[in-house]
Design a protein that fits this description.
The complex is a heterodimer of chains A (298) and B (270). By secondary structure, chain A is α/β, with parallel strands linked by helices. Chain A is 34% helix and 32% strand. In chain A, the strands form 3 sheets. In chain A, strands 6-7-8-3-9-10 form a 6-stranded mixed β-sheet, with helices on both faces. The longest helix of chain A is centred in the middle third of the chain and has 16 residues. Chain B has one domain. The longest helix of chain B has 39 residues. Chain B starts with a helix and ends in a 6-residue tail after the last helix. Chains A and B meet through α2, α3 and α5 of A and α1 and α6 of B.
Chain lengths: 298, 270
């Protein structure tokens, strides 16, 4: 069952298009990555989901509630971390948990302080005296403490050190395993790759791709490096159809395997190869194509 | 009423309220203590036509030959500094939501709680009114306390002071309500404050102009100060019910319009 449903959503800022006819569904228990370069419309879509922005056309639902008409019901189900998090300068973690707990009519102190310990955040420091990373931790604690069914996190790993990022990803994986939905936006591929099952890629307000990471990897091709024997002449060697060569540096080729590995293996048997390595799928190259050529699907 | 919202709103206004309240109370003490002496020493000067005209403009009403203690007493409640402090507090608090929260970027956190926008608005409006009441009560207490040290003729009777207090409270609520309407349409607090201040300044100047230029009387009803006349209260000794209703009407219309705009608008922080 879809927990997040975005249907033909369009949002304009005057003459500028924020989101163009976006349709997206995220199921319960999914770790969903929402990728796109800066200004691609990720935050706009998230703000529509949070009932902060009103759609010009189409709409969005979370947990069955219309995000605009029943925004307060949506927020009861959602833990939200804004992309550009700003906190009241007087707010401490303890005060935030007390106030948010009263607003949500539940005691958040215990789960919140457990999260503060997990993220290594001093609970009595005021937000005005916190570093950006500390404020981000407090924002995450406020998003997670009430144990929401849906987590909508706009670039949550920004400003966090690698250790805390790993801790956060661990928490998010646990939540997803327990059936909660994680909607995770980022402009960094590696973050999404480490965490998510499925990815949507946004470019200039348009959906460029919505696939599982496994499907994207199979399309992305794997990186291949071939080192030819010194006595060979690589200039005379024709690559097989499954191999796209990007770089020829003397006796070294860098290429992408775009077809079955068996076909490549058969071809390589008769070649004067000294060394050969086949790496991971090169998602970076695929994403760069999505990012830079909106009109072309790789 | 949600306790979390109330606590958050109170946490934000208490210091501003104390500062404005202390300032207003201090100024009321000063005026209550020095005005009677000033009045006695400058009795002949007060008969000058130009001085009378200026006093009339300040009081917003005909004073004729009534240059008595009532005028001195009412001056303590219409002095520009007093009005500036009362309006300053109302504008400061009225412009917090949503303009102030959008400008500071904290609106996202506030609106991530499962509370409807009208409810959030109402909580802030109620806290604003309560804070305004505290400021005015501090001034009232100061005026009553300082009154003990002046001649009995220059002491305002508590029931009269109560009427002036209610009239001033309604003025505060009207300014706060209209400011919150302006703030609901704006994403910049400074802009909302500027517009509200501009309207009040125009209102103040119109009230002044009416006293000098009779044709302006036709539009005198547009000035908010038309509905706040402490001298008339002291002279007539009656409740200014019409004025109170107009000010309360402005407060209610401003607040409702603000709530409606806030509930329907998109919130952009960039």
């Amino acid at each position: 069952m879809s927990v997040i449903e975005i249907e033909r959503l369009t949002k304009r800022y005057g003459r500028r298009l924020g989101i163009d006819n976006l349709t997206l569904r995220v199921d319960a228990g999914e770790l969903f990555g929402f990728l796109g370069p800066n200004g691609s419309g990720k935050t706009t879509a998230i703000r529509v989901l949070m009932g902060l922005l009103r759609a010009d056309a189409g709409g969005a639902r979370v947990a069955g509630y219309d995000c605009w008409k029943a925004g307060h019901r949506v927020k009861a189900e959602v833990g939200y971390l804004p992309g550009d998090l700003r906190l009241y300068p007087w707010l401490t973690c303890t005060a935030a948990l007390r106030i948010a707990g009263r607003a949500r009519r539940r005691d958040l102190r215990r789960p919140g302080l457990e999260l503060a310990e997990l993220f290594d955040l001093e609970p009595t420091v005021r937000a005005g005296q916190m570093s950006r990373g500390m404020r981000q931790k407090l924002g995450l604690i406020l998003a997670l403490a009430h144990r929401p069914r849906v987590l909508i996190l706009d670039e949550p790993a920004a400003a966090l050190d690698p250790l805390v990022q790993e801790t956060l990803f661990g928490v998010l994986r646990e939540r997803a395993q327990a059936g909660d939905t994680v909607f995770f936006s980022s402009h960094t591929l590696s973050e999404v790759e480490r965490l998510c099952d499925r990815v949507a890629i946004l470019r200039a307000g348009r959906l460029m791709a919505d696939e599982t990471l496994a499907a994207l990897r199979s399309r992305a091709g794997r990186t291949v490096t071939i080192l030819w024997r010194r006595d060979s002449d690589p200039g005379t060697i024709a690559p097989p159809p499954v191999l796209r060569v990007h770089q020829r540096e003397g006796h070294r080729w860098r290429a992408t395997l775009t077809g079955p590995a068996t076909a490549f293996a058969r071809w390589s048997v008769g070649q004067p190869i000294e060394d050969l390595s086949i790496g991971q799928a090169d998602l970076n190259r695929l994403f760069q194509q999505y990012y830079s050529h909106p009109e072309r699907n790789p | 009423m949600n306790r979390g919202l109330i606590e958050k709103a109170l946490r934000e206004v208490w210091l501003t309220t104390l500062v404005f309240g202390a300032g207003l109370a201090g100024f009321e003490i000063l005026l209550t203590l020095i005005l009677p002496d000033l009045f006695s020493q400058s009795a002949s000067m007060l008969q000058l036509k130009i001085v009378k005209t200026f006093l009339r403009a300040l009081m917003g009403t005909q004073i004729g030959d009534m240059l008595g203690p009532e005028m001195v007493l009412s001056l303590a409640w219409v002095h520009p500094v007093v009005l500036a402090l009362v309006w300053g507090h109302a504008i400061t608090l009225g412009s917090r939501l949503p303009a102030g929260e959008i400008e500071s970027g904290t609106i996202d956190v506030l609106l991530s709680w499962p509370l409807s926008r009208p409810r959030i608005y109402l909580a802030h409006a109620l806290v604003g009114l309560a804070a305004g009441t505290v400021v005015l009560l501090m001034a009232l207490t100061a005026s009553l306390s300082a009154g003990r040290f002046v001649e009995p003729a220059f002491r305002t009777a508590p029931d009269m002071l109560g009427r002036i207090f209610v009239n001033l409270w309604c003025l505060y609520a009207a300014v706060g309500g209209v400011t919150s309407w302006i703030a609901a349409m704006s994403s910049h607090r400074s802009r909302a404050v500027g517009v509200a201040f501009g309207l009040l300044l125009a209102s103040f100047l119109l009230n002044f102009l009416v006293q000098f230029w009779p044709p302006a009387e036709k539009i005198a009803f547009l000035s908010i100060l038309t509905y706040y006349r402490p001298l008339q209260i002291l002279q007539a000794g009656a409740w200014p019910l019409g004025d109170l209703l107009v000010l309360l009407g402005l407060a209610v219309i401003g607040s409702l319009a603000g709530a409606l705009v806030f509930a329907r608008r998109s919130i952009c922080t960039t």
